[in-house]
Specification:
Blueprint lengths: L1 H32 L3 E5 L4 E4 L8 E5 L4 E10 L7 E6 L5 E5 L3 E3 L2 E5 L3 E4 L7 E6 L4 E8 L2 E6 L5 E5 L3 E2 L2 H13 L1 E2 L2 E2 L4 H7 L7 H39 L1
Antiparallel strand pairs: 1-4, 1-7, 2-3, 2-6, 4-5, 5-6, 8-11, 8-14, 9-10, 11-12, 12-13, 15-16
């Protein structure tokens, strides 16, 4: 009886061993057959490392708007359970690991052509108080008829918007990103920097160039109005002074 039990134990161990081997092979097969997914970065400076850990060797960083590929593997940082890493392929073919917080898997990068409100769902009755401004950067997650589901820069705004207000043109996106870094402060364009920015801009056909240029005209109009008001006030004061003297 002991001999029979011993043989049964050996047979059971053999079955478990075979099952484990099969699972490993299946996992490997899934990994090999995984089709890499386009991924976009919506947070400037996402770190890229050799290993999925903050202690891993630093390789590079991913810029806002950059496109890369997700290779189907994820890992949690053993030194910090809150940090998730994904295995990626950069545009130059380099394979590495990047923090997932600033990346949108299976997304497309785009920029806002004109200010637009954000909706909770693809329905006009779900209007929120949030909005995207002209030249804001975002990632498109999903398209449904004339609606798109988006995630804004640094994941500050999420929701649905009308798709006609965005541009996926690479030059448009590049201009919007360059403007956010070189031309803006607290989300507002600095008029004094516009001429230099446009002069050095390598992308001359972007839909945003005219909008940026128009800010110079608006600034001139505002200055003229302020100067005009000041002159009127000064003339008014002179008139009042003259009237007092005459009296």
């Amino acid at each position: 009886m002991k001999k029979i039990n011993y043989l049964l134990l050996i047979f059971a161990s053999f079955l478990i061993s075979c099952t484990g081997s099969t699972d490993e092979n299946q996992t490997a097969k899934v990994s090999r057959n995984f089709e890499k997914q386009q991924t976009v970065c919506i947070w400037d400076g996402v770190p890229v490392r050799e290993a999925p850990s903050k202690d891993g060797k630093w390789i590079s960083k991913i810029s806002l708007g950059e496109t890369l590929f997700f290779l189907g593997e994820t890992a949690i940082d053993s030194t910090d359970r809150n940090n998730e890493y994904i295995k990626i392929e950069l545009s130059d073919g380099k394979i590495a690991w990047a923090r997932s917080y600033g990346l949108v898997i299976d997304g497309k990068i785009a920029a806002i052509k004109k200010g637009v409100p954000v909706y909770e769902r693809p329905d006009l009755l779900t209007l929120t108080k949030k909005e995207f401004k002209e030249m804001n950067i975002l990632a498109i997650e999903e398209v449904k008829e004339d609606w798109i589901k988006v995630i804004g820069q640094e994941k500050k705004i999420k929701g649905w918007i009308k798709k006609e207000v965005v541009t996926e043109n690479k030059e448009d996106v590049a201009v919007a990103i360059l403007a956010s870094k070189q031309l803006m402060k607290n989300g507002e364009i600095i008029p004094e920097k516009i001429e230099e920015f446009l002069e050095n801009l390598p992308y001359k056909n972007s839909v945003f160039n005219e909008y940026i240029r128009s800010q110079i005209i608006e600034e001139e109009v505002v200055v003229e109005e302020v100067v005009g008001e000041a002159v009127m006030e000064e003339n008014s004061e002179d008139t009042e002074t003259a009237e007092v003297v005459e009296e």
